[in-house]
Design brief:
InterPro entries: DUF1059. The chain has about 60 residues and is an alpha+beta fold. It is built from 2 helices and 3 strands. The protein starts with a strand and ends in a 5-residue tail after the last strand.
């Protein structure tokens, strides 16, 4: 299974957050949503989780 990655650096923020989260898709959605709520003051909602899911990319494995 291909791991997924969520990377805060791809989104503009006042904090210049550099957190990257990698793992199985559901793990990353859960962790990235928790991060968005606790650090970036977003509200946890199905819409936020879908926005997070839409930003995930496949992890690039070094050759």
């Amino acid at each position: 299974m291909t791991r997924k990655v969520a990377d805060c650096r791809t989104f503009p923020s006042e904090m210049n957050c550099t957190l990257t989260i990698a793992g199985e898709e559901e793990e990353v959605v859960r962790a990235a949503t928790e991060h968005a709520v606790s650090v970036h003051s977003h509200e946890d909602s199905p819409e936020l989780r879908e926005q997070v899911r839409a930003t995930l990319v496949d992890e690039k494995v070094p050759a």
